[in-house]
Amino acid sequence: MVTIPQLPEKEELEFREKEFFLSLREQMQASRKWLFWVLLAIFILSFPAKLYLQKPLANYFIGRYVPPLVNTNPYNPSPLKVLRTGILPVQQGTYSVYAQILNPNPEVTARQFHYQFALSDQGGVLVKTVEGDSFIMAGDSSFLLVPQVNTDKALKQVAVAFSNVRWTSSRPDTAISFDVLQKNTGVSAEGKFFVEAVVHNPQSFGFRQVEVPIMVFDRANKDIIAINYTVLTDVRSQEGRYFRVIWPVQLANFGQIQISPNVNPLSPGWLLEKVQKIPSR
Predict the structure, then answer these.
(1) What is the pLDDT of residues 75-94, one digit of tens each?
(2) How far apart are CA 258 and CA 138, in angstroms?
(3) CA 56 vs CA 60, 62, 253, 271: distances in Å
(4) What are 94-148's pLDDT values in tens digits?
(5) Same domain for 158 and 239?
(6) Per the count of CB atoms within 10 A, which of 54, 61, 149, 230 is most buried?
(7) Which CATH number is 104's domain given?
(8) What is the Cα Rg of the chain in Å?
(9) DSSP-derived secondary structure letter, 61
């Protein structure tokens, strides 16, 4: 059974209220009057003191304020590494240059960076520079290829520098891969070596641009002896695109030929189209 508390009557509440205020008045009358006047003086003087001290105190605290440091680069990635470089004589006055690079960061992608090849002679005197832009996914290794450098001086040394690296933790929604079909080599009627193949796009979407680097290794499949490069544009879904690259000379004693089509999925405007799946009936 619930017990309901007995509330006091209205007359009793009014009596207790009057008793409280009478007690408070007696206590105030019993207190010292000088304390009342001191409190009143403090209250009156606080207004001009506030007006006088407001600006100096504000300047003092604002001047001592140190804003928190803002990290403009939320990532702290390790720099890109150069694993190896090479200068390949093609013919008199023409060279090919390459560099194999590594992104040592397993979680961060360099969606764009600027690179520069500094090409020097035997004495270390700078002969020529070649610049470009590229990308490299998180934890990947890739090649930077310059198939043709024309100079009348002998190139013996190469150095690679990176700048304007744009890091991101974004990753593509799906892995992108290509099939290289009908790979073939030969010599043209003019006596020039060529490599040809068909790049097939198995994705359900197309690409504005597909970069196709080609590397030719020696018979031991250890050293690169020739490089080339081409770009395929507007490659649609399920399309097989034929290409042929030609060298100005013949190549002999070559082994494996590596063709590695790739796309930068973090570059704006890379997607050409996407085929919608037709629902089954």
Answers:
(1) 689 999 999 999 999 999 99
(2) 22
(3) 6, 10, 85, 60
(4) 999 999 999 999 999 999 999 999 999 999 999 999 999 999 999 999 999 999 9
(5) no
(6) 149
(7) 2.60.40.10
(8) 39
(9) H
